[in-house]
Amino acid sequence: MSVPTSILTADSDQLFADWGETIQFEEVLRRYDVATGREEDRVFRSTLTAVRQTLAQQPVEGISATLSLTRRQYLVRARDLPAGAKLTSARLAVDETQFEIRTVTESQMPGVLLLDCISAGNLE
């Protein structure tokens, strides 16, 4: 017996209401300016509600464990993403840290995506 989609959607909505936090979604579009000979980034920002899962920090191989990258996973609702957003060129800004989106997986909850991210460094 399968669970009706309406029940799964209601459950995921409750999950986001209870555990969600507001984060910045940044889509980065890079283009080459022929006139200046430089690459330019245009960043389009919007806010999302996401449910965070913090994973263990892992030392970077070959660096005496002095530099750690933080890996996190975020659940986001696909309907909350900007229309036409390209997740391959996007990042998340959370608590003054930028996270590059490495992989995107469809969750078992309808309309929910799992973003596997790694810290890209502190915001300046």
Written description of the protein model:
- With 124 residues, the protein is mainly beta.
- The protein has a single domain, classed as Bacteriophage SPP1 head-tail adaptor protein (Thrombin, subunit H).
- It has 1 helix and 8 strands; from the N terminus they run αββββββββ.
- It has one helix at residues 5-19, and strands at 21-33, 38-54, 58-59, 68-69, 71-77, 90-94, 97-106, 112-122.
- The strands form 2 sheets. The chain has a 6-stranded antiparallel β-barrel with strand order 1-2-5-8-7-6. A two-stranded antiparallel sheet has the order 3-4.
- The N and C termini lie far apart (52 Å).
- The model has no long low-confidence stretch (mean pLDDT 85).
Summarize the structure.
This protein is mainly β. The protein is 12% helix and 54% strand. This is Phage head-tail joining protein.
Distance between the termini: 52 Å
What is the count of distinct domains? 1
What strand order characterises the main sheet? 1-2-5-8-7-6
Number of helices: 1
Parts with pLDDT < 50 across at least 5 consecutive residues:
none
**Relative helix content:** 10-25%
How would you characterize the largest beta sheet? 6 strands, antiparallel, barrel
Instruction: State the CATH class.
Output: Mainly Beta
CATH architecture: Beta Barrel
Global mean pLDDT: 85
Judged by helices, strands and strand pairing, the structural class is mainly beta
Say what the CATH topology is.
Thrombin, subunit H
Apparent shape: globular
Question: H/E series, N to C?
Answer: HEEEEEEEE
By DSSP, the count of extended strands is 8
CATH superfamily: Bacteriophage SPP1 head-tail adaptor protein
Using only C-alpha atoms, the radius of gyration works out to: 17 Å
Strand content: over 45%
